[in-house]
């Protein structure tokens, strides 16, 4: 993805997975929904056809379909394959090597992205250097955007959080310190001189 970036990328690509639905929905809102409406507003002001909302709606639908499989662990039994591998000679193993332990998954992923760029997106390799510079620029915008969102959320939620914390601290104080003070001072009330005692 970052070795052979697409030349027509409009945002910094990144992948985050979570098994918690609420966390996923929050990420979708900020990185898909909010961003897509922002892009469409920019396109509308530029008198171009809005398209980001519709595209991200399709992306989110695909994510929901694949989510069942991507956030779970799957175990498959391949006893027959293992038995076949053990019966093969060294020459056959070299000629028909299907041992997945020998696969370089980093290289496999890199080749998959390269193939997608060339044969699916029809994107030439002549502009890889230019695409990398664009990707670096988009990465800066991406992280600035995240920092800005965190700051805005902090400004919006800090009064609520502070009020909540102040309330918790006040209740803790009333239940603990005042109660202990009254409890500790109750013996003073009990030790007050009675009315029958001598007055000075």
Automatic annotation (TrEMBL):
Domain Fatty acyl-CoA reductase C-terminal: 31-123
UniProt KW Zinc keyword: no
Pfam families named among the record's database cross-references: Sterile
Membrane-spanning segments: 28-46, 135-154
InterPro entries linked to this entry: FAR, FAR_C
CDD domains membership: FAR_C
Alphabetic keyword roster: Membrane, Transmembrane, Transmembrane helix
An individual GO BP term: long-chain fatty-acyl-CoA metabolic process
The organism's place on the tree of life at top rank: Eukaryota
GO molecular function, one term: alcohol-forming very long-chain fatty acyl-CoA reductase activity
Residue ranges of coiled coil: none
Gene Ontology CC: peroxisome
Protein name: Fatty acyl-CoA reductase C-terminal domain-containing protein
Source organism (scientific name): Tenebrio molitor
